[in-house]
Amino acid sequence: MRGESSEQVLNGQKIFEELFIIEGGNFNKAGEVASRIKVILKNMGIPDELVRRAALVAYESEINIVSYAKQGYMKLTVNPDLIMIESIDEGEGIVDIELAMQEGYSTANDRIREMGFGAGMGLCNIKNYSDYFDLRSKIGKGTYLKMIIESQQKNPKTE
Amino acid sequence: MTLQDVKDILDAEMIVGGDKLDMEVKTAFGADLMSDVLAYAKAGSLLLTGLTNPQVIRTANVLDIAAIIVVRGKKPPQETVNLADEMHIPILCTKYILFETAGRLYQKGIVGCVEKVQSKS
Q: Which pick of A50, B44, B75, B109 has the fewest CB atoms within 10 Å?
């Protein structure tokens, strides 16, 4: 599951990066990467609420990769200003992004639903919990998701 | 109330986390749909569910759920128990159905939790 991690200093800012590989279709392992990201962020001393939001968006996107793609990657980048999670998969792609973003819309099969997912909440949830969210998809190629959680909260999103 | 009180109110069996019986809990969320749990449940709440696969533990871990109450007399499989043990998330099993489990806890002061983040647009 773990890829390479690196820590570098750029313009005086410390930047942490780690790449994770996610196996499509393996529901037994679904969530391992999100749990790992949570531990990494906690060990960095990042406030609980930010760790929780980052783990949540990572988990939702991990479930999406496991559910819909053969393989995918997740990249975690942390600098003093933000936590960025990028998820890249080699799946079928999303035909209609606007439709996929609608609460309740889902193309999940029975196996996904048996695990307690596929209610059409995932992407909305990711958007709600991120400060910045970008979704790009190419039919037959895959999907790219970028989620940013800002460390300095200008507009706190949770009550 | 404490997790010990929850255990007594529900005549529950402690499967994982016997060392956490003095933990304080105030809120709960009940659902079999993890998608909804992820969208609404608040940190520190009890999760009442009839689902027993390992994703329940993963979901609880991500959300900082205090403890899981498995309802309808179900018993979680070993892989779920192992993961809960590893992640220090208590599991209690009760014979009551979700409705009655919620009702018993509500009667004794546990309230529901909803965390809905503000929409961006």
A: B109
